[in-house]
Design brief:
Oligomer: heterodimer
CATH class of chain B: Alpha Beta
CATH topology of chain A: ABC transporter involved in vitamin B12 uptake, BtuC
CATH class of chain A: Mainly Alpha
Number of domains of chain A: 1
CATH architecture of chain A: Orthogonal Bundle
Largest sheet of chain A: none
Helix content of chain A: over 70%
CATH superfamily of chain A: ABC transporter involved in vitamin B12 uptake, BtuC
Number of helices of chain B: 9
Low-confidence stretches of chain B: none
CATH topology of chain B: Rossmann fold
Largest sheet of chain B: 6 strands, mixed
Mean pLDDT of chain B: 92
Strand order of the largest sheet of chain B: 6-7-8-3-9-10
Order of helices and strands of chain B: EEEHEEHEHHHEHEHEEHHEE
Structural class of chain B: alpha/beta
Radius of gyration of chain A: 20 Å
Strand content of chain A: under 5%
CATH architecture of chain B: 3-Layer(aba) Sandwich
Number of helices of chain A: 16
Shape of chain A: globular
Helix content of chain B: 25-40%
CATH superfamily of chain B: P-loop containing nucleotide triphosphate hydrolases
Strand content of chain B: 25-35%
Shape of chain B: globular
Order of helices and strands of chain A: HHHHHHHHHHHHHHHH
Number of strands of chain A: 0
Structural class of chain A: mainly alpha
Distance between the termini of chain A: 25 Å
Chain lengths: 335, 258
């Protein structure tokens, strides 16, 4: 079976696409009101009772779409960054954009503007991500080495994390502190079409920037000198992946909060099925990321403990053991 | 006139000339060995030809400056085996060789029949077809070197530049790699190979370029280049030399001292 998948990545992609659609339907079925498949389907096209139509179209659809887009972005950028940096431990957090978006969001809560408008947090987060992208470009523009890029990303990430700690330290009241913590834990709850309209275009812009990078990432498997002699414009490839990641992940984090592990775990999981060729990992990583996040979002609706599970927490709790398992299974092959 | 020509090539790094006024030519089907002590500028010469470092002077391929060629055009004509070439992911041998076809494909294009033919031919030529499904991370040094050589041959370039392709290989595999390069030369490919084994260079190359201190000390047939005087100047060693009638051999046996 693995051999068939390795030779024909479309087989895996077809499975994952079906899985993504099933996850989307399941996500539409479960919540405070549980619907059957047919109820969900009819309500999604407005052919059910007014109440069900409202639940599905206004509450669940934007959440499903955002979840799929966010997961796909994190999975795809994780695979692309691992290929670019030739490092299986890279994930979107590496470029410092997630942490900076977090700083923007926390600033909005700290300043109290979050209470004035529902768009304040995502807009501030987006500004944070944008500033991080610009700083990254300035820091790493002259030097084209991957190491400079990683170090610049780490520096930005550390600075943003320090800023978040500072805001939390001086939080004006316990409610603000709780809002900050909750935002950092990530969620798709109560997301609307407005959120989708805010983040969606930027997420898609980031995707478009990264279309067709697979061949260059494949060439980089042989090192940057060999990739250059295979006709790859390395500078262009690097900026397409980094800026594409910054834009799409920045937009994702701005509406969903911090969600870790998807970008790290998903490419490893896909490798177990179709091997390590960077180009062939991209599409399945996007599909699996979307599926995983949509399924994780269903878990956040389960009545567990006193409060509600947050999406970032579910991903960490599910993702970390998965990561350890994959490392255990593939140890020795990464040398 | 066809050929790969270097004319007065100079490379400076940090204000120091590490390659000075280097000129030589590689004809189609010719196998040229770049020899010289460590730091003489052999790898720098290859890197300058490939555009990996900036160089003054002219590097011309088939009457066209290499620097003016489009990246993919250049990549289809000049193939390169870097020194100690890494493979960062555990790819199968066949998928590694397939990377050599990248210059022939646009970013979305899948490989066609011609690409698969080129891959199989390159792998059979380097005797690596029988382990095509194994991961490169599980191959021995000799097997890996053959796969990486096949990757370069699969490009189907007019010129092939190899930086110490025999380093860390046992004698049998050294001969095998040189024979594969010779066979490529036989098919009309111009070969430039950096090497340290002077006997192997004498046995395999049509022409040698002896670099010393960033400039050319001698260019010509192996016999004309590897004279006692040149070897003493460049390598600072005494060599034992003999011939068995078909091949010449050189073995260093003592340092000359200061």
């Amino acid at each position: 079976m693995i051999k068939i998948l390795q030779k024909n990545s479309w087989v895996l992609n077809s499975f994952l696409l079906v899985g993504l659609l099933i996850a989307a339907v399941l996500s539409g079925m479960f919540g405070h009101v549980t619907l059957s498949v047919s109820e969900f389907m009819t309500a999604s096209v407005g052919a059910n009772s007014e109440g069900y139509n409202l639940i599905v179209q206004e509450l669940r659809m934007p959440r499903i779409l955002l979840g799929m887009m966010a997961g796909a972005t994190l999975g795809y950028t994780g695979a692309a960054l691992q290929g670019l940096l030739r490092n299986p431990l890279a994930d979107p957090g590496v470029v410092g954009v997630s942490a900076s978006a977090g700083l923007g969001a926390v600033t909005a809560i700290y300043l109290g503007v979050a209470a004035q408008s529902a768009f304040a947090v995502p807009l501030f987060a987006m500004v944070g991500a944008l500033i991080a992208t610009l700083v990254l470009m300035v820091l790493a523009a002259r030097d084209s080495s991957v190491l400079t890029l990683i170090l610049a990303g780490m520096g930005i990430s550390s600075l943003a994390t320090a800023g978040v700690s500072l805001m939390m330290n001086f939080a004006p009241n316990p409610m603000s502190l709780q809002d900050m913590v909750m935002w950092m834990l990530g969620s798709l709850e109560n997301r609307t079409y407005e959120d989708l309209m805010l983040a969606g275009p930027l997420i898609i812009l980031g995707w478009l920037m990264m279309i067709g990078v697979g061949q260059g990432l494949n060439a980089l498997s042989l090192g940057s000198d060999a990739a250059h002699t295979l006709g790859i414009d390395l500078k262009r490839l690097r900026w397409r992946v980094v800026v594409g990641t910054a834009v799409s992940v920045g937009a994702t984090v701005s509406v969903c909060g911090s969600i870790g592990f998807v970008g790290l775990v998903v490419p490893h999981f896909v490798r177990a099925f179709i091997g390590s060729e960077p180009r062939r990992l991209l599409l399945p990583s996007a599909l699996m990321g979307g599926m995983l996040l949509t399924l994780a979002d269903i878990l956040t609706r389960l009545p567990i403990g006193h409060g509600q599970l947050r999406l970032g927490v579910v991903m960490a709790v599910v993702g970390a053991p998965m990561f350890i398992y994959i490392i255990f299974k593939t140890r020795g092959s990464m040398r | 006139m066809s050929g790969l020509k270097l004319e007065h090539v100079t490379v400076s790094l940090g204000g120091t000339d590490i390659l000075q006024d280097v000129s030589f030519e590689v004809l189609p089907g010719e196998m040229v060995g770049l020899i010289g002590p460590n730091g003489a500028g052999k790898s720098t010469t290859l890197r300058a030809i490939l555009g990996l470092i900036d160089a003054d002077g002219d590097i011309i391929m088939n009457d066209k400056p290499v620097a003016e060629m489009k990246a993919k055009d250049r990549a289809r004509r000049l193939a390169y085996v870097p020194q100690g070439a890494p493979v960062h992911w555990p790819l199968t041998a066949e998928r590694t060789v397939a990377l050599g076809r990248i210059p022939h494909l646009n970013p979305w294009q899948e490989m066609a029949e011609a690409d698969y033919v080129a891959i199989e031919r390159a792998m059979r030529q380097t005797d690596s077809w029988n382990f095509k499904d194994r991961l490169v991370t599980t191959l021995s040094g000799g097997e890996r070197a053959r796969v990486l050589l096949a990757r370069t041959i699969a490009v189907g370039a007019s010129y092939l530049l190899a930086d110490e392709p025999t380093a860390s290989l046992d004698p049998e595999h050294q001969l095998q790699v040189m024979d594969v390069l010779r066979a490529e030369a036989g098919r009309g490919v111009g070969i430039v190979v950096v090497m340290h084994d002077l006997s192997l260079a004498m046995r395999s190359c049509d022409k040698l370029v002896l670099l010393y201190g960033g400039h050319i000390l001698a260019v010509g047939t192996p016999k004309a280049v590897l004279t006692d005087a040149h070897v003493a100047t460049a390598f600072n060693v005494k060599m034992a030399k003999w011939s068995d009638g078909t091949s010449d051999y050189m073995v260093p046996y003592a340092m000359l001292g200061d």
